[in-house]
Amino acid sequence: MVDDRPLLSQSSLGWLLLTALVVLAAGLGLRDPWPADEPRFALIAKEMVESGQWLFPMRGGEIYPDKPPLFMWGIAIGYLLTGSIKVAFLLPSLLSGLLTILLVWDLGRRLWNPAVGFMAGLLLLFTVQFTLQAKTAQIDGLVTFFITLGVYGFVRFLLCGGGWRWYWLGWFAAGLGIITKGVGLLALLILIPALWTHRDRIRTATRADWLRGLAGPLCMLLAISLWLVPMLLAVAQSGDPVLQAYRDNILLRQTVTRYANAWHHVKPFWYYLTAVIPLFWLPLSLLLPWLVVAWRRAILGQDKRIILLLGYLVLAVLFFSLSPGKRGVYVTPGTPALALLAAPFIAELLMRRWPGRLLGGVGWLLGIVCIGGGLALAFSAKLATRLGDLGPAPWLPLLAMGGALLLINALLRRAPLSAILCSLAVGWLIYSSWITVRLNDMRTPREVMTLAAERVPLEDELLLAGFKEQHLLFSQQPLKHYSYQMPDEQQAREAAAWIAAAPGRWVLGAADLMERCFEPDRMDNLGNRHRTDWLLARAYALKPVCMGLTPTTVPFSYTPGP
User: What's the pTM value of the predicted model, to 2 decimals?
Assistant: First the structure.
């Protein structure tokens, strides 16, 4: 009878990286960027390449002040190398995921043994939140790599007999994390439990040791200056108030203000503990009751490895919980530490009855849910209509996935860890290479923008009302648009004034915005995307209440590249 012993004794880095590459790279180039975040970053990167402006991220001719450009640089470089935005937009997350797994494997084998290193990398690969971020174009995958690199450097210095260069690497990586996303400083949290685990070493530190230690923050400042100094010099030399506002916003409002006084995604303190970790840190979250007991035993035994990693993980979750603004993806940097903390105890836990039952139960549950979803899609015309056109037999991928998962769990019923990891692998492969292809047209406005290009003559002007990055990304003609910060009511009135100011003008926008100033029965419906109809109007569709308005805002202009 098959059991988990072969998996628990595995230590091959080659097999680990091959598995990770197959799972994480599956579907690469098969889908377009999907809202909400992916089209924004892909558009900015594409515009960097087309305009040559790399220092200040722009979207549709308007500056993007929310994030530093490091992640977008990664997509832009991928776009330069491949010539395909469908491939390039996922490359930074894919490479970050593979490198993070490599770091976790190396720490596991150095702190324990090669088998633990392999298991830690494998557990990280199949932690749901980590896999999702490695297959999604969001900044959190890249910042997780830099934070993990910082933790890696500090642990090599503190526990593996490494020299000061590893300590300095930890600080430098934290700096790179900061210019990726402000929370890159999380790696420094591991130094807090180190004050306890290395208290004797601190007491006996020489003056030279203190000077080397103080060089750490300088390494972090050096990393930050790679982007900050050129940006500040460019702003100072330009005298442009737009760039000055960008500088102030990204250095203050998007860091300290956003953390301490968030204006959106406001959630209660316990949000991560109740709504994110139980679901998105599967399958390891199922084992937390037993892992906590094992960690407590290790802490009582003064195991510095567990004290440092667990202290860092708890402080990281606490850091994000203290901010009122919360999104599930924010705690992704905690998953590598969780995998390292779980790997040494997996074999012990699988000898118990309930950990194995829970892991096996999740595999069966996933299979049953997929089959149930496929049957619902096959026999519910209302559900199929609501989801839109998913091609012939839209239920087939779900039924195939459900059948595969049930078969895996039947064959590996005596090997619950192998069963759940194989189930997740097959699930991700089918989702990435089959389901996302079916969903792609529904998740993008390609058809809407194609129809707009067919209806609007090349010599005419088209205004996009209700800013959406995905519409600019898929545009096939020059567009004008207003700032994403402009309220819908103002956009509707500005669009009405703009279209009446000259002949040969058209407005495309979401139904709820367009119907404020245009007659619904005098507009063309180009299709339903992103939960709304997109309507195309000419000046004769204006409502009387919006006639005679004077434009007060000049729209931004965007011309798509080839």
Answer: 0.94
